[in-house]
Amino acid sequence: METKEKKACLCGTSEFNVVSCSGASDLGQFSDLVARRLRDNKVRKMNCLSMIAIDNQPLITAFKSANVLVIDGCPVDCGKKILEKAGITDFNHLRLTDLGYKKGETPISENIIQAIYEKAEAIH
């Protein structure tokens, strides 16, 4: 028997927020995992980047006055471009290729996740 429960969205805003590229590549996966770890450790509130992309005005308005970190995997900068297109210009940006990681060549490992997390956690 299938039941359809309506569950509350886990998104929300706070003073410190994070959104990430969650692309199909290894670096997209790292970006997403680090954002989730920031959320789980209560460093930042994680938000859905797609909510910005679909023009969710309450979230866009909140982001314009919050401390936001965007984590992108590569120079395509999907996350950064989505925020800028929504008129959000004052945010922190972390690009994993700038840290020396190579798209399609970086196997997922706890050591790399932790190294990226430490860089992201220090951004205020």
Features:
124 residues; alpha/beta; 5 helices
Task: Describe this protein's structure.
By secondary structure, the protein is of the alpha/beta class. About 40% of the residues lie in helices and about 15% in strands. The chain has helices at about 25-40, 50-55, 55-65, 80-85, 110-120; strands spanning about 15-20, 45, 65-70, 90-95. Strands 2-1-3-4 form a four-stranded parallel sheet, sandwiched between helices. β3 (about 65-70), α4 (about 80-85) and β4 (about 90-95) form a beta-alpha-beta unit. It is globular and about 35 Å long.
| Mean pLDDT value | 91
Number of helices: 5
- Distance between termini? 47 Å
Q: State the helicity in percent bands.
A: 25-40%
Number of strands: 4
Structural class determined from secondary elements: alpha/beta
Largest sheet: 4 strands, parallel
Q: What is the 3D shape? A: globular
Count of discrete domains? 1
Radius of gyration: 15 Å
Strand content: 5-15%
SSE succession: EHEHHEHEH
Which regions are unreliable across 5 or more consecutive residues at pLDDT < 50?
A: 1-10
**What order do the strands of the largest sheet run in, or round the barrel if closed?**
2-1-3-4
